[in-house]
Amino acid sequence: MLLFQLIKKESLQIFRNRTAFIMMVVFPILMILILSFAFKSSFSTTTAVPKLKVHYQLEGKKTAYQEGFVTFLKSLHKELGLEAKPSKNLAADKQDVKEGSLTAVLEVKPNQTINVTTNRINQQNADLINMLVDTYVENAKTYDSIETLYPQLLAKVKTRTVDYVTVRSTKVNKNMTSSDYFAISMVTMITFYGIMSAMNLVLVDYQKGTLSRIRLTGVSSTNVLLGKLIGGMLATGVQLTLLYLFTRFAMQVNWGDRPLAIMGLIGSLVYLSTAIGIGLASGIRNDVFLIAASNVVIPIFAFLGGSYIPLSVFNSALLNQLAMISPIKWMNDSLFYLIFGGSFNPIAISLAVNVGVGTCFILFALFSMRKQVTL
């Protein structure tokens, strides 16, 4: 019952600041409407095949399998404009892949296996390369099976011309619109702004002396901390619910068909942002510094997460590498994977980072509160 009263106090403290509460709902809605309209043409349901550049290495004595693969690459150059060159320095080429200047490195082994090295900078290109290599491997396996079981038919099969690629664009069942992209991105960004609301819960208590009066009643630091954590998460959850309802029913945004999984993912980011806010305010009670730092750092993380504009627009390997430090980027990628699919699943990383880092900040806040009590 005591914990419930603390949770009620903290959540009402956020709700009473009506201007800030409303702005945290109205501002992202306006941003979604403006940005989705501005980038509407960038999210066409038909996607042109991207420019691909690969280097390959034929290991050991050249085999028919390897020669067939080179022929396959030549057909892809004709159909897709894929640029394929023999590798002169495998280690250097792999470094180029890591930095994003090269799409992939293909190592064709004598034992009919192909090692593919790609990166996460442009997942679309990596997926396409893997799909094309799989296509060749499956065709080669088919030829081998026919040669083993029906050798008399092999000559007829070899005379057939295989069209590996027949169209220059691809369509998928779940196309992401600009409204889908920016609705999801704004939800994660506003969730991260929950840091400031959580900081305010701690700073206001210190300024008004509320925390000291609460402690005089015998309330433990753990209960105080849980009240702020759950109360802050509850208030942020209400804001996100309003934003979700508007985007889903007014804008027809595709939020997928796995609501519990999506709630769990977003909930982990709510936990992280609230924990960071409480932890920072508990250890650094300089409200001017904290607010100024938050107003600088949060927008940077939002930018790196693609909240304002997709980073693919810049085609910058450096930006894509820097984006790895943004929890918003990992959360956006996780939600996009969950709703629209993809070959790389970042959900485990997102949950581990959100829960792990959030728990570290909570433990730091608890340590700071108990230290202040002993003083």
TrEMBL record:
Keyword Nucleotide-binding: yes
MF annotations from Gene Ontology: ABC-type transporter activity; ATP binding
Subcellular location: Membrane
InterPro entries given in the database record: ABC-2_transporter (IPR052902), ABC2_TM (IPR013525), ABC2_TM_bact-type (IPR047817), MFS_trans_sf (IPR036259)
Principal place of residence: membrane
Its membrane topology: Multi-pass membrane protein
Cellular component GO terms, alphabetical: membrane
SUPFAM superfamilies with a match to the protein in the record: MFS general substrate transporter
Residues annotated as transmembrane: 20-39, 181-204, 225-247, 259-281, 288-314, 334-367
Keywords: ATP-binding, Membrane, Nucleotide-binding, Transmembrane, Transmembrane helix
Keyword Oxidoreductase: no
PROSITE patterns: ABC_TM2
A Pfam family matched in the record: ABC2_membrane_3
Boundaries of every ABC transmembrane type-2 domain copy: 147-372
Identification of the protein by name: ABC transporter ATP-binding protein
